[in-house]
Amino acid sequence: MTAATGIGARVLRTEDKRFLTGTGRYVDDLPLARATYAYFLRSPHAHAKIKKLDISAAAKMSGVVNIFTGKDLVDAKVGGLICGWVVKDKHGEPHKAPPHPVMAVDTVRYVGDTVAMVVANSYDEAKDAAEAIKVDYDVQPANIDLAKSFDKGAPQVHPEAPGNLIYDWEIGVKADVEAAFAKAAHVTKLDLINNRLIPNAMEPRAAAAEYDKGTGNYTLWSTSQNPHVLRLILSAFVLGIPEHKLRVVAPDVGGGFGSKIFCYADETMVCWAASRVGRPIKWTAERSESFQTDCHGRDHVTHAELALDKDGKFLALKVETIANMGAYLSTFSTAVPTYLYATLLAGQYTTPLIYANVKAALTHTAPVDAYRGAGRPEATFVVESIVSKAAAEMKIDPAELRRKNFIPSTAFPYQTPVALQYDSGNYPPIIDEAMKMADYKGFEARRAEAKSRGKLRGIGFSSYIEACGLAPSQVVGSLGAGVGQWESAQIKFNPTGNVQVMTGAHSHGQSHETTFAQIIHDKLGVPMDQIEIVHGDTATTPFGMGSYGSRSLAVGGSAIVKATEKIIAKGKKVAAHLMEAAVADVEFENGTFKVTGTDKNVPLAQVVFAAYVPHNYPLAEVEPGMDENAFYDPANFVYPAGTQICELEIDPDTGTTEIVNFTAIDDFGNIINPMIVEGQVHGGIVQGVGQALMEGAVYDKSTGQLISGSYMDYTMPRADNFPSFKLGYKVTPCPHNPLGVKGCGEAGAIASPAAVMNAVHNALAPVGVKHVEMPATPLNVWQSIKGAQRQAAE
Amino acid sequence: MSISVAMTVNGKAVSGKVEARTLLVQFLREHLGMTGTHVGCDTSQCGACVVDVDGKSVKSCTILAVQAEGSKVITIEGLAESPDKLHPMQEAFRENHALQCGFCTPGMVMSAIDMVKRHNYQLDEATVRRELEGNLCRCTGYHNIVKAILAAAPAMKSAGV
Questions:
Q1: How close, in Å, is residue B48 to chain A by CA atoms?
Q2: Looking at the domain assignment, is residue B82 inside a domain?
Q3: Closest CA to A326 of A294, A368, A287, A291
Q4: Angle subtended at Cα A580 by Cα A575 and Cα A585, rounded to the nearest 5 degrees
Q5: Which of B75, B97, B129 is the last residue of a domain?
Q6: CB atoms inside a 10 Å sphere around CB A773
Q7: Does an H or E element contain B92, and which?
Q8: Residue B111 DSSP one-character state
Q9: What mean pLDDT is reported for chain A?
Q10: How far is Cα A459 from Cα A447, in angstroms, rounded to an integer?
């Protein structure tokens, strides 16, 4: 197709104009006539019994329309929120599944737990009335310290999960791994914390709902990454509104990063209450509510050991992790520290034996679930940290140690010891290119120069692998997923020749309206301005699984390709009739059907017109219309891989870290739009660097108050924390999807924490610092340096 | 208790009755239906709500509607000359892929225009990065926003805006 706009072209985005002119339409922007406004009263305590809940004074306040509490939901027989992935523990028993009431009934279990919903004529009135609700709390001790969750005497979160244990899960054969360790020439040990993060999509979560009394239909507008899945959960498990009577719309959504995948209490309430209030209801989270109630990410305590032979070959890896689930199990929470984490512990290496044990713990904190990368950043951080530590201990260059253990390009498809079969890859050229771009050879000279200025300069590698493009349905089904993970597409031509493409994926920043249009343009030759990509509305799009896990292009894009193939196959029959030729002699190229070897041709637009106005048409063999559906279930995950190199300088007097150079070379398979892919990588890197140097959700260990509860307290990455990034690509096409694509949405965030922290450790090694936890804030770094100095003096 | 307020928004005289506590951003979004200006936080830090009030860049969540009485306010909706002719800063954001989800974009663009003018159309990368202190973006990693602003500065100068 034309190089300017087809696959591989740097096409400017279709969606930009509305966002740049203030005409985007986010949930909070919706004009709803006669709307009421909801405000949620939330628990100020991490753990308390509700002794008394008195709404009588609040109900009389100005503008109040209705107040709902947990008891109203019990009376209405509303179900609880669900966890959609059943993980079986090491004895084959399903995980503990404590109830998750939509609003608290007699107990609150984290600061932010939902206690009451006030609906009023204005948001301010709802908020004023919520202040007048009297709640008598009997405050209980709270379990906040993850590492101590299983201790005897730790406060219990749910009676259904004794000892706060959700599951004790393992993968690999422990005895085999221990045997390999017994023969090792060197063992590297590492204790680390994967810090808890708050997603912070810039658009706070929001919901609005309307009930049509005449039809009994509900419409819920939600900031959802997967409106069909949200509808399915609300219908089948929570509210019982039949799926065909509930329309869920996710219009423009301002970022998600995982936090908008899940089914939340507040949007559930807005939907449920719409029919009871009899007027539309709007709710938008204040940022403080987002901090408290969006599902958080990461939060692991891990011990890892790597066994190596005398030459640095990896013999075995064992990993013990405690993963925080928070106070309730969110939608996909159980899968994140198991099937999305431990299965990635092979990294890019031939480590023949791996054992991982993961214990999931309940704490009196906000639920924890998938956040950009979901399990894979945690795995990469373990693997890439311990590999760099081993290199330092064995005095082997960190790049050399990695290269020594890379899976060779001839070994694909490669079966790892932790279930995954990598489909393709070629890792050595990636690290070579990254080292060249980062001028690794010149590093020691730069370190010396920095030292002359009193700065500690360090360099760090991170060679990541990830499994994304979720996912083969039968594989995830056998692992406990409650859903399939195919994707859908519908290509609907209109009689005038333009085309609407409905996808079950959802864009909340990923640029589907451009990338998917490029695929259509490339495959069918329709001009870009004649293509509309439609997403985010259960009423107009085929059932689909939404966007997360870097799946939209690999799975959703593949569904679109399948649908184009059906259009072409049907078009050939129509074109053959129009050209009075045999179907077998018709070919399709650049938007035109031709009879092979002749100059006879008919453009697609004419075929479409004939299909809708079938006056001269093979009606006996072909149905009218040009409208095709496709569902695509992937044969495997896709496996993007790459190497990042971070170079930074630390000021030992202040502990401040400045990133001076950041290089990322990725293999995302074929690339549809390099401009968009680069944008995904930039954003991912910054989120990962945020984790490494700045961000951390902090709960007070005794009271369970969220201390990092606003932008005053939770450090978000800002523009002046970064240099410009250097990016590059190597391409090994994915062998099992029609576009040859892998995923690019999470890679940056998966790899960068380890690159940064390896650089921090490299910089601090000369002053004797052994270990710094994330986030390596100035205080944290400065204290580490002082600690090392004290130790050296003793 | 409601108070009458009148101002000029994007060249058009507007008025309404607000509560004393109504913020300028609420007046724009809820009273005037101008939803291009966004609210991303409650501590005046994200910058999604930046507008221009009488030539000054202002976070519209930090001032009351009544404080803007009689002012000339410019919002993201008032920048483009016509639906087909974007402001050079908007155009530079598009050309450089400086936006993804679009939520921080209105505030970013408004701040960026103010930044270029305050620096007399002459900016370097370090200055742009430092000046973006008051605007948060979670998607782009700022890389392309910085590029866009650097590209827009000379374009604004030659366009005389």
A1: 8
A2: no
A3: A368
A4: 65
A5: B75
A6: 15
A7: helix B88-95
A8: H
A9: 97
A10: 9
Yes or no, beta carbons of A20 and B99 under 8 Å apart: yes
Chain A neighbours among B 11-70 (CB < 8 Å)?
A: 19, 21, 29, 33-43, 45-46, 48
**A239 and A120 share one domain:** yes
Strand-pair partners of A657: A650
Q: Does B111 touch chain A if contact means CB atoms closer than 8 Å? A: no
Residues 6+ apart with CB under 8 A from A425: A348, A407, A409, A412, A414, A465, A639, A641, A667, A732
Q: Domain boundary residue among A632, A659, A680?
A: A632
Chain B residues within an 8 Å CB radius of A727: none
CATH of the domain at A496: 3.30.365.10
Contact assessment for residue A386 and residue A345, using Cβ atoms and an 8 Å cutoff: no
Nearest Cα of chain A lies from the Cα of B5 at a distance, in angstroms, of 19
Burial class (CB in 10 A: 0-12, 13-18, 19+), A97: middle
Whether ipTM tops 0.85, in short, is: yes
- With beta carbons under 8 A apart, name residues in chain B contacting A717: 141-142
**pLDDT tens-digit map of B14-71:** 999 999 999 999 999 999 999 999 999 999 999 999 999 999 999 999 999 999 999 9
Interchain pair A22, B142: CB under 8 A: no
pLDDT tens string A437-471? 999 999 999 999 999 999 999 999 999 999 999 99
With a pLDDT cut of 90, the percent of chain A lying above it is 99
Residue A29 with chain B: CB contacts under 8 Å:
29, 35
Same domain, A431 and A569: no
At A593, which helix (H) or strand (E)? Answer: strand A592-595
Number of domains observed in the structure of chain B: 2
In a domain, A157, yes or no: no
Write down the residue that tokens 């509104």 correspond to: A241
Tens digit of each residue's pLDDT (9 = 90 or more) over A145-169: 999 999 999 999 999 999 999 999 9
Give the Cα separation of A70 and A101 in Å (integer).
8
- Boundary-marking domain end, from A274, A293, A312: A293
pTM: 0.97
For residue B33, the domain's CATH number is 3.10.20.30
In this prediction, residue A5 has a pLDDT band, given cuts at 50, 70 and 90, of: confident
- Over residues A707-713, mean pLDDT: 97
Domain containing B133: what range?
88-159
Q: Which domain holds residue A609?
A: 16-21+486-632
